[in-house]
Amino acid sequence: MLAGNREWFGPGSRIIITTTNRYLLARHGVQDVCLAKQLNESDALQLFIWKAFGKPNCGKEFLDLSKDFVNYAKGLPSTIKNLGCSLYGKSIEQWIVELDNLKAEAVDRNSEDADRFNFDGLWDTEKELFLDIGCFFNGEDKDRVVDILDNSSCFPNIGIEVLKEKSFITIAGKKLWMHDSLRKVGWEIVSNESPMEAGRRSRLWLCEDVLNVLKNNKGTNVVESIVLDSLLQKEELNAEAFLEMKRLRLLKICNVLLPHGLDYLSNELLVIEWHGYPLTSLPRSFQPNNLVELIMRCSHIKQLPKGFVSNLYSLKLIDLSDCQNFNEISIFNGFPNLERLILQRCTSLCKIDPSIRALNRLILLDLEGCKCLYSLPPEINFESLETLILSGCSALKKFPEIGQNMTRLSKLYLDGSAVEKLPLSFKHLSGLTLLILRDCKNFSAFPDIICSVTSLQTLNLSGFECRPTRSWHSLGRSYSLSSVRVTATYPQIISFLILFFVILPHGHLSLLVCATLILWAYFFFAAQLPEIEPINFLLPRSFSRLSSLVSLDLSDCNLLDGALPDDLDRLSSLHSLNLSGNNFTRLPERISELPKLKILNLDKCGRLQSIPKLPLCIQFVMARECASLENYSSQGMVWTSGEEGFITS
For residue 577, what is the enclosing H or E element? Predict the structure, then answer.
């Protein structure tokens, strides 16, 4: 920097400073900072052509190649200028060779020296973080990376800010991104740790390097991270390769076989992301006290070893989705800081151990598709839980009692479950905003307790059915025999026939007669009993307490005339109302008084005869397959505020 301070310049001077280090600007009191953005495709192509041809256009034969070079540069102006200048005056054949060399080369030599100089200016912990992001965490959520590396003495929160301020990374949508040219610099640095032996490098990410090490038992104590997630076919590994990797911290691997088992994994591991783990258990000696994430989707694992789960105080995520052999977590006390437990489609899982109540920091519990799950603890009282997913738990009939600390639960999914009723303690869910009861068919009546949850914003009851209780006592019927009227049930008839058999003399004839009569009685009564149909779904008479409701889905609920509450207009926040697939002939007039209703779905209401006056705020009405509707049209209809009626679309 040639200028020492602002006093060197006269009044009215405009000073423009370019740097990759924002701390430098702050140190000199620069207040107006503009972050340089990458060039868009059009501007990048224009800059490249100027540098490569010295004019604003190029011949058609060079245009596609020019776009390839621009795509390689990823919008970085310095790289675009360097590439363009290096190609000035060269033939199209030379351009093709240069492009092939760039794709094959690990680092752009035009920018390597500057980037390497900037890298050398980092502290050791910042260098390690730079390499971890470049080799393992590019595109990952920032908070996730901080959680994983928090116990690794690299101070990830501070380090990420330093790398961001020095333009080594950017943060977009809460995700960490490193430019390809900088990643290649990092890859080159790691490769130079041991140019000839991949097993003596700290990080392995190239498929051929990883397979060379793991198939040929070339692992060493130097290896800290492994990524193998792009195999097209299963590969057999030599499990002994892991024996020497005592410092392995990050492991991401999939689609491999271990024909001789696995006896060892590093206890220094922070992340295990092993899709399709081929064994039924983890090594007995494996006790990774610093483990933060255990992700083993589509694996053959059956249980987590008791020794493994005894001291995992750093563990925040368990994801065993689609592990169809997994059947139990015997104890949850060993990882009290767990935040997310994901067991989707673990079809052998039958129950959840009551010790799960020890997970006071649990935010997400996802048991979607656990078809054999029939038992949850009698009461759940997770004070941190925000999302509970029991979708598709078709064997789960009893929903647990809700403790008074469950005030943070905001999303509850029970769609497709076999739950029969909601407990009175359901009212403790004072923070619940979304409740999905779609395709719940075992309720005997509408759970009125829902109306006490005044925080609800989204309620989905699509396909909800109520069925009457079926028992032997409900099977009584009256039948006329000549002029005598007899009332009897099927069990009573069977009892009478048995008594008849006992009284008559024993013999083959009496046995045959009784058997014939029993069969006749069974088929006769079975034919007379009508199939139990879903009853007309009866909603509560008042929705007055659900004034926060924004979206209500009552599609396919067999609603008849009068089923909707009289005070429908009390849903003062309602934006979307789905009534499709029902059997009413008219809508309540007070629907016109819904002050915020924008979307109304009446599709497949085959008996609907007319639509009443709707509020002016309505924007979209769907009324397809409503054959009884006046002026019926198979098209959807759109209501525009201020118009006289519907416009078909």
Answer: strand 576-578
